[in-house]
Design brief:
Layout lengths: L1 H19 L9 E3 L6 E3 H17 L4 E4 L13 E9 L1 H5 L6 E8 L2 E9 L4 E6 L4 E3 L2 E2 L12 E4 L18 E3 L4 H9 L5 E4 L3 E2 H13 L2 E4 L14 E2 L2 E5 H10 L2
Helix pairs in contact: 1-2, 4-5
Length: about 260
């Protein structure tokens, strides 16, 4: 039900933005998750609680998968599930930067049907419903048409630039760039601010689900690093890396990867 879910997600993510920005990033209480899973703040938990209450009240028959909720098997019995990253880019949030984002998606039988990514401090709200195109602040967006590395700027972390990641033994001649939030990177690709993004590390579904639909509805292509379609609400909610971009540069990346 993407047409009816999207307005709910937009309302919820705006509420999340108001909650998150009520905290001051550098002074928000922060601690590290067990097992080196990264930092979490009181703002992450407050946003998670808000979204869980609001979304599941509106859709009590949906499952729930969130970075800040202990996972279990219950969600696997639901045809539809919310996939949520309360704050993607927590380190940026704690540093007082403005590049962190809220990301919410609905997946139905493994495919995302509605999605939002919101950067409240930048005033950027990316949204998409399956079959209805992608938008930024209510205006249609389209992914890049560039198809050659020499003309491309691609979002990638340093490990993806090592020669061992590439079939030729050297990184292709694209211009690299970086943003800390995976959700934000996918939004930037959907609006063609950047031509593509890739991460070769295992990626959590909550970082990727919303952006996956937004990129594809913007006319781009997104797969794992081996070119396989992305499926969501898996028993293990991790993906085998992500490659996203305009269809031409996406194909070139897959061909060049080792």
């Amino acid at each position: 039900m993407p047409a009816s879910d999207l307005p709910l997600l937009i309302d919820a993510v705006r509420m999340a933005g108001r909650v998150a920005t009520s905290f001051v990033g550098k002074s928000a209480q922060r601690w590290d998750k067990p097992g080196g899973a990264g930092p979490v703040t009181e703002a992450d938990l407050a946003v998670n609680n808000l979204l869980e209450n609001v979304l599941l009240l509106a859709r009590p028959d949906y499952g729930w998968l969130s970075e800040e909720t202990e996972d279990g098997t219950k969600r696997l019995g639901h045809d539809r599930v919310f996939i949520v990253d309360p704050i993607d880019g927590t380190r940026s949030f704690t540093e007082g930067a403005d590049t962190w984002a809220h990301a919410i998606a609905v997946a139905e039988q493994g495919e995302v049907t509605a999605a939002v990514i919101y950067l409240p401090l930048r005033g950027l709200l990316y949204s998409a419903a399956r079959g209805a195109g992608a938008q930024l602040n209510g205006q249609p967006i389209n992914a890049s048409a560039i198809g050659v590395f020499e003309e491309a700027t691609i979002l990638a972390a340093k490990p993806a630039l090592h020669g061992t990641a590439w079939f030729s033994g050297a990184c292709p001649p694209f211009k690299p760039a970086y943003r800390p939030s995976l959700a934000y990177r996918l939004g930037l690709v959907a609006q063609a601010r950047f031509d593509a993004m890739l991460t070769l590390r295992p990626s959590w579904e909550w970082d990727i689900a919303a952006g996956a639909l937004i990129v594809s509805e913007a006319g781009g292509t997104i797969t794992d690093q081996r070119g396989a379609p992305l499926r969501f609400n898996g028993a293990d909610p991790r993906l085998d890396g992500v490659v996203a971009g305009g269809s031409l540069i996406h194909a070139a990346l897959l061909e060049a990867l080792a």
